[in-house]
Amino acid sequence: MSAGIDARGRLAAILLVIALAAGFVCSAQAQTLTLADRQASKTFALQVLLADPAVRQVTIAEDPVYHRSMTYRAIPMADFLKGLTIGDDDYVQARAVDNFSVSIPARLLKGGAGSDARAYLAIDDPASPWPPLPGKADGKSAGPFSIVWQIGGKADVSSEYWAYQLVALTVTDSPFKRWPGLAVADSVPAADPIRRGLDRFVVVCMACHRFGGAGEADQGPDLAVPMNPVDYFKPEALRKLLRDPASVRTWPEQKMPAFGPDTLPDDDIDAIVAWLAYKARERK
């Protein structure tokens, strides 16, 4: 009996050591950020970025992720992206640890003269760690890396561009060039809401969903496989789902947040539904 207990004790101790080691490895992996263009990539450790001469204090009066004022140690994205080969129409794919993946116009991240939006790579300093994300049960913060913005004037910065828990930033072609199956036919008038719907779907929805395999994100289901949402939702129910999914249904692993009218106006929701309906008609 004693030998059996000792054996079980040793096994428990070994499993504990393995678990701790695995946790350490995961933590170490999460403390790096990979930056890449089409020619090369480089991985930065958190402490290296904190020591970068370009780091400054940045205060965001109304941080939409934390819903409060936040002060960060951050590098201007214009400085962080300097040296990369970036075309005028290129995008930067911001990938997070949880399979969130959003395409951000590189010109918006780089800012420049006349721009009312300034993007920063915020770095979570272990000496003054960021608080846990509100409403998240896992107690994790937005760190170790996130994109934050100082916005003035009439700059239009999508809520999805406040990407956090980042692991990689990669220069890519535009989503429309990478995934031509998303496109709208030339016969669709320039002012048709369908065109606006495609733009808003790429900016808002594709950060978490794919469409017929197009995209990178895997937080939510593919919205074209096997059926398009307009095929099984009444239009009004689909609009409610886009506004606040919990008002239509809830599920244990629900991640999709509600979008207020200031973030996703009614006209944008109507446009997204119009584009989805257009793509559904294409399949018939």
UniProtKB/TrEMBL annotation:
PROSITE patterns: CYTC. Residues 1-30 form the signal peptide. Pfam families: Cytochrome_CBB3 (PF13442). Transmembrane segments: none annotated. InterPro entries: Cyt_c-like_dom (IPR009056), Cyt_c-like_dom_sf (IPR036909). One of its GO terms (molecular function) is electron transfer activity. Keywords: Heme, Iron, Metal-binding, Signal. Residues 192-280 form the Cytochrome c domain. This is Cytochrome c, mono-and diheme variants.
